[in-house]
Amino acid sequence: MTINDPVAATPGSPDAAARSVRVWDPLVRVFHWGLVGAFAIAWLTAEEIQPVHEFAGYAVAALVGLRILWGLVGSRYARFAGFIRGPVQTLSYIGDMARFKERRYLGHNPAGAAMIVALLVTLSGTAFTGWLLEKPDRAAAAAQQLQIVAPAFADGGGNRAEVGTRGYGHAKTGGPLKEVHETLANLMLVLVAVHVGGVALASFRHKENLPRAMITGRKRPPAPGDVA
Fold first, then answer.
1. CA gap 109, 138 in Å, rounded
2. If I label 29, which of 40, 77, 137, 224 is the partner at 20 to 30 A Cα–Cα?
3. Mean pLDDT to the nearest integer, 186-213
């Protein structure tokens, strides 16, 4: 191979840049790696270093909110309207993957788009339940507004004022809300594992380093048959 070959060109060199196109804008890349770091910190400090855990949780919530906003008004490949597909097209793409004949997408492919939605929804739920757990009165107010009957009422004990401390208090007090929070966090680990596996598979199938593309923002130009 010569240096003029797009595969052989050194990443970051002028030749490599000339043979690539910008796909991921800086905000998408900062969101992606910032979220990786914030979630990892939140997971590692859960019930161990509570102030750090809570700070990381707020960082996750802020990043998710920013990504949702950017998904509405951001650059071409960042906008939800540009990559989210319906169930039929998503399932069809997954079927094509199983048959090793899926098309290459310059942006997010349908399976990746579905994963992004699942990650954002799960992260939102995890951050929200964590926010409720931080202060008992928040959970009590939410329970009253949503007319949620606390499990403590089942045995005839407690009253509405006790909802915040008995059923929905801080993580250390336990309760159903803590279980929901932990279940969502564990679900996130499953989704992350599937996401990493999908990225590795797509990188191998299309001979493209997708993690590096999320650092540089650049990918190989679309070839005939690719979806740009």
1. 39
2. 224
3. 96
The DSSP bridge partners found for residue 219 are 21
* pTM (whole model) above 0.85: no
Residue among 190, 80, 72, 71 at smallest CA distance from 126: 190
Token pair in block for residue 59: 């960082």
The CA distance from 179 to 129, in Å, is 10
Sorted by sequence, the CB contacts under 8 Å of residue 150 that are 6+ apart come out as 143, 158, 162, 163, 166, 167, 168, 176
Q: What is the pLDDT of residues 104-118, one digit of tens each?
A: 999 999 999 999 999
Rounded to the nearest 10 degrees, how much is the dihedral formed by the CA atoms of 89, 91, 96, 97?
120
DSSP for 48-84, written as a single string: TSHHHHHHHHHHHHHHHHHHHHHHHHS-GGGSHHHH-
Angstrom distance (rounded) from CA 110 to CA 26: 22
What span, in angstroms and rounded, lies between the C-alpha atoms of 173 and 116?
32
For residue 160, count other CB atoms closer than 10 A to its CB.
Answer: 13
CB 82 within 8 A of CB 110: no
Adjacent-strand bridge partners of 22? 218
Does 220 have pLDDT greater than 80? yes
DSSP 155: G
* Domains of the chain by start residue, with CATH: 23-135+170-217 (1.20.950)
Residue type, 184: L
What is the reported pLDDT for 133?
A: 87
Q: How far apart are the first and last CA of the chain?
A: 27
